[in-house]
Amino acid sequence: MSVRAVGLVQRIVSLHYIPVLCFAAITAVAFAQYHGHAFSSNHISRHDGYHEAVHGHDHGHVDYYTHPKYEFDYKVEDHHTGDQKSQHEHRDGDAVKGSYSLHQPDGSVRHVEYYADDHTGFHADVKYSTHHLHHHY
């Protein structure tokens, strides 16, 4: 798969996850109302640019292109279930940059910073931090 195709797939996937992430945040808030303290938040900013006509080579067909630009973030903290995660992503044209963190079942936290563009493809820097679990007997 070419770098351009991978970038396109990543952009489509990230755009399709926005409604899922919003639903997850709303569900966490609703669940927390009945099951203790939890916190969630989300923010989405879309910046639609000017629609440019892109002329094709076939019988006068005209496509339109809008410079893609958005930013979103979300955060969930539910200490009752241990669900703790957050993500922030920013896109301007063909460049996407973001980060997320996720508390894993073993107590470690995965931190990922990523970026993608049409020239270099997708890159991610994954780090783990370990929190020592103390068992009380």
UniProtKB/TrEMBL annotation:
Bias type Basic and acidic residues, positions: 79-95
Transmembrane spans: 12-34
Keywords attached to this entry: Cuticle, Membrane, Signal, Transmembrane, Transmembrane helix
InterPro entries hit by this protein: CHIT_BIND_RR_consensus (IPR031311), Insect_cuticle (IPR000618), Insect_Cuticle_Struc_Prot (IPR051217)
PROSITE patterns xref list: CHIT_BIND_RR_1, CHIT_BIND_RR_2
Domain of life: Eukaryota
GO CC, any one term: extracellular space
The name this protein goes by in its record: Cuticle protein 7
Keyword Heme belongs to the record: no
UniProt-annotated stretches for the region Disordered: 79-105
Lineage of the organism: Eukaryota, Metazoa, Ecdysozoa, Arthropoda, Hexapoda
UniProt keyword annotation of Signal present: yes
